[in-house]
Specification:
The protein has 43 helices and 14 strands. By secondary structure, the chain is α/β, with parallel strands linked by helices. GO terms for molecular function: ADP binding; DNA binding.
């Protein structure tokens, strides 16, 4: 957004719009989109009411079901979110639902939501001249299209939200009428106000406005009559008298107070000597884009100021993120709010060439701008501060302090007046101002891709990005959304118009050259130079930590991971990370989880220089942290059916994990880092760590089933196992690839991987491993409808495991044999084998596989005509799946419960259960979604086959 004084908010152009102020609507390029039933609409409304904020799963459940949520509430919400994500698929950067513990976050420009746009307009109208105020408030009022959220009026959310939004509309209406009264439009308002008072007979402000309009229009008797009507109604209905403001207005009407006869006008400046009005703001930056949410937050702070309290805002962020540009753009936009002037100082808090300005130097300059003669400026700092605050008392001045180093540099420069505002930018968080001065902190993040491309166009060659849209998006990504880097990239494109965007992308793709490619002749605007200044101010210990963070493969990290990386304890690591966060060299997107901008990561890596033993050992320590913690956590999910054991690594820092829920929570949070760690170990030749780290994820993968990541890391793991020629590694990696391919519907690939694991087992002569590969071969051959071959493998494996006394693997062979028997019509034999497998999995406490076997028991029971038994098995499977966190097993249970309902002839219940199953399967990317769609299309189809065990 360019600087200026336009009083209206920006309304997004073509794309997605969200409407809450009436029936809930989502429009794409003006066309209403189908949203589904009331629960899905209520969920979306809940996220829209708090855009860019995490809404917890518990609050979503409470909103949708109040006091009686179903046991599968979380799973159902996952399904609803999956549907909404499909709806937003075409929205691109405009709207996205992000999973963010402990719930979900809707990432969207709030101006695309009518309720938030209305609030922005209402807040912006505050303090404007009457004509502009009336126009802006009228614009806000047009956003209401009828009763708020009328299509979900029966929901708890409606009862919580609708009254507030209705009240907001009435407040805006009253403010617009007040502005029109100030404009002298009382004759035109009499009819409108009469209708409004009849509709809201107990609303005192509307009655007062109608009384005033009548009085100014010469209807004195009608004005008094309206007061008596309200007094009688209040007395009869709620036993109250009108409030003091309305009583005072009535008394002024009775005595014909001359001040009531004409609209109030803003008083002219007082008589006497006029003080100088400073106007020190530098020009607003050219080509400013985006930052609507941050600008709106500053607008809101200005509009909601409390009487008697000073206004103080701190814009913080890493080097080059655009703090000064935002502050100057907003300052120019609201300068009319500060008729007594605008003061500005660049505090040089992070200037590589000059020392930071002292508070005394800044005060001297500001006092001169306020008209104080140089020879009368006090010598002592406290005296200068006192004079400065005295001159600002009762004045409305904007004080912009750019590039502050710390709270102590800023504190003497803060105005004491409640009418003035101080806006500060800094690379540090300035927590001292928050604690001691009540500052409001606005952290500045990098730009989203769409906005970053817009900045490339405005700062470079207009239209060039549009000619190469894919390359422009890649360039924005390589610059990490950092405005400084984007402006340098745009300058390089502008300097050589013949150069294509893809040419610059190619140059930046190599991380080793990226920072060099973002240098230009003006060293002060180099990305590396900006980072250098922040880095050089670090304590040596914090500088060492920052450099090692460049080795972290993932995008986030915890204190325990950094403790391992830096060979220290978690408490010390936490202190170091907090210090780096204060300097905006790392971020803390979630409590106790930290991250780093991609360009800062490249910069940190560059600081490590050439590969060294220090870097290698640090990376090994980090990988060992992941190995030890993953090995510990996986044992809470399923039995560890291999010889890998890293539990002796007690000296390795790891978080406390004591139950299944904590283990799943750790895996969920660390999963992207574990994937990146496997890839890094493989790339760095640490093959002795890579394939074991992959295997330690198997129990988690069986519960959560992220197919693409599963195949990716197991492919890396197989490469590592082959590189060191480790037979156990090759067998486990190829078997794990087979499981992933089989469950995701890639049956031919699964057979090839299982066949490789089978051949390795034959070569090693390990009877138990050979039987395990036969169980897997049996499962995929069954899915390929090669039933006789499948039966032979299952029977051979069962014989071996019974002879070895391995009860756990006996259970897997029994389950797979039962599936062959089921398809051959040997239902009683199948159920007997399944019940035996059920007992064995209960003994092993393998809940994920137990849920699968219970679902299989339910399917066979329904096929035998034992509907009640089938439902009981599926209900128990659902309970077990909820306990272990397996969405796939929950979906299978709902599928079976739908089959049972259909067998009883209850098609409506069947459809409801299958709808839930479909939502989960689609969310998980499972090929089994096709089965459910077929059932929903034809409720007379027979029940599905049972599921097979993979080990």
């Amino acid at each position: 957004m360019m600087a200026g004084h336009d009083s209206s908010t920006e309304v997004p152009g073509a794309g997605f719009e969200f409407r809450l102020l009436g029936p809930l609507e989502v429009r794409a390029d003006g066309v209403a989109q189908p949203l589904g039933g009331a629960p899905v609409r209520a969920l979306l409304a809940c996220l829209l009411l708090e855009p860019n904020q995490v809404v917890s799963m518990d609050r979503l459940i409470d909103t949708l079901w109040e006091n009686e949520p179903p046991a599968s509430a979380r799973t159902i919400i996952h399904g609803y979110v999956s549907r909404l994500r499909k709806l937003f698929g075409a929205a691109g950067e405009q709207a996205e639902i992000v999973t963010r513990p402990p719930g979900y976050l809707l990432r969207v420009d709030s101006d695309r939501i009518d309720a938030h746009r209305a609030r922005t307009l209402i807040n912006r109208a505050h303090g404007m001249e009457p004509a502009a105020r009336s126009r802006v408030l009228a614009e806000a009022l047009t956003l209401w299209r009828g009763p708020v959220l009328s299509d979900i009026a029966s929901s708890r959310l409606y009862r919580m939200v609708a009254p507030n939004l209705d009240e907001l509309r009435l407040l805006a209406l009253e403010e617009r009428i007040a502005a029109d009264l100030d404009l002298g439009l009382h004759h035109q308002l009499v009819l409108e106000l009469s209708t409004l008072v009849d509709r809201h007979p107990l609303r005192e402000r509307l009655t007062g406005q109608l009384m005033l309009a009548h009085y100014r229009a010469g209807h004195r008797a009608e004005a008094q009559s309206r007061f008596h009507d309200l007094r009688r109604r209040l007395s009869h209905e709620i036993g109250l008298d009108p409030g003091p403001e309305l009583r005072e207005l009535y008394e002024r009407l009775l005595r014909d107070d001359p001040a009531l006869r004409h609209p109030q006008r803003r008083p002219e400046p007082g008589f006497g000597i006029r003080r100088p009005i400073p106007a020190e703001l530098p020009p607003a930056p050219a080509g400013f884009v985006g930052r609507q949410r941050e600008l709106a937050a500053l607008d809101t702070m200005l509009a909601e100021r409390e009487q008697g309290s000073s206004l103080l805002a701190v814009v913080t962020g890493t080097a080059g993120v655009g703090k000064s540009a935002l502050a100057l753009t907003w300052a120019h936009r609201v300068e009319h709010e500060f008729p007594d002037g605008q003061l500005y100082a660049s505090l040089r808090g992070f200037d590589s060439e000059r020392e930071p300005l002292t508070p005394g130097e800044v005060l001297t300059s500001m006092l001169k701008a306020l008209g104080v003669a140089a020879n009368t400026i006090p010598v002592e700092l406290d005296d200068r501060t006192a004079l400065y605050r005295s001159l600002l008392a009762k004045r409305r001045v904007l004080v912009l302090l750019d590039n502050a180093r710390d709270s102590e540099q800023v504190r003497p420069l803060l105005p004491g007046s409640a009418e003035s505002l101080a806006l500060i930018t800094s690379r540090r968080r300035l927590d001292g101002l928050v604690v001691r001065s009540g500052a409001r902190v606005l952290p500045l993040e990098t730009l989203p891709t769409e906005t970053a491309i817009e900045l490339l166009d405005r700062a470079g060659v207009p239209g060039k990005s549009a000619s190469e849209p894919a390359a422009a998006a890649q360039l924005a990504d390589l610059c990490g959304g950092l405005p400084l880097a984007l402006r340098i990239a745009a300058a390089r494109l502008a300097a050589n118009p013949a150069r294509g965007v893809s040419d610059l992308v190619h140059e930046l793709t190599d991380e080793r050259n990226r920072l060099h490619a973002l240098d230009i002749d003006d060293a002060d605007t180099s990305v590396r130079r900006a980072f250098d200044i922040s880095y050089r101010s670090l304590h040596p210990v914090h500088a060492d930590t920052f450099r090692l963070l460049g080795l972290v493969p993932g995008h986030t990290f915890t204190a325990h991971a950094v403790a391992a990386l830096c060979d220290t304890d978690p408490h010390s690591a936490q202190r170091r990370l907090r210090a780096l966060a204060l300097a905006h060299l790392v971020t803390e997107p979630e409590p106790d989880r930290f991250g780093m901008h991609d360009l800062l990561r490249v910069y940190a890596r560059d600081l490590l220089a050439a590969p060294s033993s220090i870097a290698t050992e640090a990376l090994r320590r980090l990988l060992n942290h992941y190995l030890v913690t993953a090995d510990h956590a996986r044992r809470f999910l399923r039995p560890a059916r291999d010889e890998l054991d890293f539990s002796s690594g007690t000296e390795v820092p790891r978080p406390q994990i004591t139950d299944r829920a904590q283990a799943l929570e750790w895996f969920d949070a660390e999963w992207p880092n574990l994937v990146a760690a496997v890839r890094a170990a493989n790339a760095e030749g640490m093959h002795d760590l890579a394939w074991p780290l992959v295997r330690l994820q198997f129990n988690y993968l069986m519960v959560r089933c992220p197919w693409e990541d599963w195949i990716r890391i197991y492919t890396d793991g197989l490469d590592s196992a082959r590189a060191v020629d480790n037979p156990a590694g090759k067998l486990l990696m190829s078997a794990g690839l087979g499981v992933a391919c089989s469950r995701s519907g890639q049956l031919d690939a699964a057979l090839a991987h299982y066949d490789e694991s089978y051949r390795v087992a034959v070569q090693t002569g390990d009877t138990a491993r050979l039987a395990m590969t036969q169980v897997n071969m049996g499962s995929v051959l069954f899915r390929l409808k090669r039933y006789e071959e499948a039966k032979v493998h299952c029977q051979d494996a069962l014989w071996v495991y019974r002879s070895l006394g391995d009860r756990y693997f006996v259970a897997g062979a029994l389950n797979n044999l039962a599936m062959v028997e089921q398809v051959n019509g040997e239902l009683e034999e199948a159920l007997a084998h399944l019940r035996e497998a059920e007992a064995l999995y209960r003994d092993a406490d393998d809940l994920e596989t137990l849920a699968m076997v219970l679902n299989n028991c339910g399917e066979v029971s329904i096929e035998l005509g034992r509907i009640a038994n089938g439902e009981r098995f599926h209900h128990e499977a659902l309970d077990v799946a909820l306990k272990c966190g397996s969405a796939m097993r929950q979906a299978s249970a709902y599928l079976g419960l739908g089959d049972a309902a259909r067998s009883r002839g209850d098609q409506q219940v069947a459809r409801t259960r299958w709808d839930t199953a479909l939502a989960i399967f689609e969310a998980e990317g499972s090929p089994r979604a096709a089965e459910v769609r077929e059932r929903l299309e034809d409720l007379s189809r027979p029940p599905a086959e049972g599921r097979l065990a993979d080990v």
